[in-house]
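Escalation from tier 1.

The customer reports that the assembly of three entities below gives different structure tokens on two consecutive runs. Tier 1 could not reproduce it. I'm attaching the input and our single run for tier 2 to review.
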Amino acid sequence: MDLLTGNPILLQTVIIGGTGLICAAILAIAARFLHVHEDPRIEAVTALLPGVNCGACGYAGCSDYAKHIILDALPVNLCSPGGEATVRKIAAFMGVTATLTERQVAVILCKGDDALATRTTLYNGIADCGAAQQIGGNGKACRYGCMGLGSCARICPVGAIELVNGLAVVHPDLCISCGRCVGTCPRRLIKMVPESRFIHILCSSQDAGPDVRKICKVGCIACTLCAKVVNGVGITMRNNLAVMDYSVPVTNEETITKCPQLTIVKRSGTKEGAA
Amino acid sequence: MSENPSTWVISPSPHAHSGDSVQRIMLTVILALMPALAASVLFFGLDSLRLTATCVVTCILAEAAVRRLMKRDSGIADLSAVVTGLLLAFNLPPTLPTWMAVVGSLFAIVIAKQLYGGIGYNLFNPALVGRCVLLVSFPVAMTTWATPHYFTGPMDAVTMATPLGAWKTAWASGQAPAGFFDLFTTTSLLLGNRPGCLGETSVIALVLGGVILLWRRCITWHIPLAYFGTVAVMAFGFHKLDPVHNLPPVYHLLSGGLFLGAIFMATDMVTTPVTRSGMFIFGAGCGLITMLIRKWGGYPEGVSFAILIMNSLTPLINRFTRPRVFGHVRKETPA
Amino acid sequence: MKTLRALFTPRGGIHPRYFKEPSAGLAIETLPLPKLFLVSLSQHLGAPSRPLVKKGDLVLRGQPIAEPAGYVSAWVHAPTSGVVKSVDSRLTANGQLAGVVTIEADGLDKAVESDPVNGDWTTRPVRELVDEVLKAGIVGMGGAGFPTQVKLLPPPGKTIQTLIVNGAECEPYLTADHRLMLEQADRIWQGVLILKRILGAGQVRVVIEDNKPDAVAAMEQAMKGTDGDVELVIVKTKYPQGAEKQLIYSVTRREVPSGGLPMDVGALVENVGTAAAIQAAIVDRRPLTERVVSVSGDALRTPRNVLARIGTPFSDLIAFCGGLTEATAKILNGGPMMGIAQSSITVGINKTTSGLLALSQARVPLFTSMPCISCGRCVTACPSGLLPCTLSENMEAENLEAAEDLNILDCIECGACAFECPSHRPLVQHMRQGKTKVMQRRKQREAEAKKATPT
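Tier 1 run:
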């Protein structure tokens, strides 16, 4: 006892050290008694998922999806970022057969960047597409085209959308098919399409041809040439606009060469093709 | 006729503006500080210009350098660094070495302002943080006070205590401060002819600045009035209970840093509440803490610490003083 | 009939420069008939009207060209006689795309014959009068454009005791209502009496700001000798004094509950222009095809108050008023506080277009936002008692939950906060964005809650 009271350094060491030990013991006991048992398979499935937490599956992140796979026997093919490999691995782990769906890639149906499409007025407000749309756009003459304020680029979890000269452009090789960008576009320009589709009509304008010509060098003028090339199969005319029906593969590259406005482009959606 | 609409602007409503800007507010504050600067030159000579220039220049350079380092737009155009520099200088004793003023300015801008995110994001008044850092780092230099030399001519390191300091140290050793009331008359306190921080002494000059701020709507009356009122009431109470040991209220009001603090520091927009009632609470809280420190604290003066402590409560005050929303029956309890 | 000053003043508000002098003293002039009309099918709140005409159709003045597409919707009439050039989606003065009927005038301005009716408005059944208001395509002409007949049919259990007539005109520059009160006070008053009869309202309050003493005198003259609980209330000049909820508070000291309607406190507000339109519809039997527009602003050569047909292109009105100066930086549909900036002047005026303003860069400088410096001016200015500064930061941080807690949905988008903001923050745009997102989130949650509880 004298040793302790006579030596303040030792006394303090004992007090602090003792407090620490007691607390550690309490924590250890608490961890044991309050332990929540979780199916170890959930952790295993989570580990198989890519961990992007993008929400494309419809659940709040990868572990949440894993939990639902185990508990609710959810289909194992909902993870688009993981792609085929992930689906196969989870299917093998769960002992089920999964139907594989083709990878979907985002495409933005506008080609009018600042060099090609006219801006009539200046915009002075928040750099957010939804906010700009509410006050009548951001000065781009075309009321249907990409405003280039980048709301889609900001929400993309993997940086697959880039703003190039006032136009949002998707990098298909980076796209993880989560589809979060689709809802951010107030002009509904973004579509998720199967990666094997490589011909795209990059315009959404419903203005009449002459009006389009005045404000955009690459807008669809509804000349119908592309639709005629494919006999209306896969490309249909709607509201002054040629619309690609992505459920039917269009592979005839004459559609591209015939387009007088260069609206139609060839752009591979696959990782290999784009890279 | 400007039919070409490429010069037209699409912007959200409203399409009208009061015309006021942060820059203009800061410019007004700078102008409002000029009478006090003039008074301090009068009483403390070129030392006040030396320190003021040091602080202002250091603050501007530090702000520009940090913004550049952080790869953000330069923020010096808003003039807030100038205001910080001026206020910091006003809170320094006239004899402080130049290099200490540089240290204080750097701390104010780099640590207290820019590391928080720059203008608008700082939690504490940068000038006051700078002052308090100096006060705890260089206690002797920060509490060595020069005698104002308006009447005596340039001084040769003649030092004496500030009124509040003289009162406190005397009583701490158990004696009544001799000749206190002859040395410090109300007139000398109003004019500023007394030892103290270089910008805090001249009450008349500070009030003139306050009137400018009120007139240009840079401050509202809530914080200063609540601050003065609380100090006056508490000082009056203490003095009534024990007239020997407690200074009369007029000395509490005039002889410390209260006017500089209440008019220019406790009204700093960024670090004070946004609601009127919140401002009132803020001012009263500053008054309360100031008086507690002056009465029972180790320091003779408590304005800087009081304002900093209340700065930390600002988010809380904002939360509890939300206005009643039109059409809502009663105020919802903050979650 | 009494004239008195309002006893209550709503909270907040601002005192902008009013710039009413250029047009306040000018009598209303009638615009010569333009050659082309661009009539929007979405001039009102609610569902866009359904077109009844197609390209090539011949129409007469006052002929319905679109019908309501729902309960909250409105009829639209041809502003003159001519041929329909197209019915398509175009840019409108609301800043959005909407259906637009383009009519080429034949210059004859031949009107359709109106159906004969029995008796005048003092004796005809109320329901018939409401029907006529509906058929005349009348919507709130103060700015919001809410279809009037919907307000005239309160649901069972709700009654309107107080009919408030809005002649406050608190937006800067605008003088259309002012001139209307000066020149056509009798018409307005007759319209008010028709409304009073329809609603069975006991009290009538005509509200005018104290910066328009001549309008007060004119309305007093028109109202003289009316029996019953009728008062002319003079309110302080301050923006947004003429906002619906603020006006009700000034007159009755009652607050419309959050998310509620004026009828929840037994009140109904109609703009003086709407009252005049109702008079025209019921007494003169003319549907709503014209309105008074204040054409003003410092970038316009000769400001005027113009009586123009609905669908008149902005360009015609601007030409009538001497054209634009070089300095033009902004064209507005409406007043400067709540008006909509235009990117083109080939849009037609709407039923709600109370003003067409052309402002120079000097009046509307471009702004760069700075961080909020917590000055609290927006809090003082907000008539709804919100914290615009905090809400704006919530929106920047996409914190919708905090924004909803801070009652972002109670924002009336009056713009007082942004007017005061020394940091030039786009507060109103943040509010508008926030309201939309919060509503979306609410709907989403409700849908999820429905899914979670199986029926």
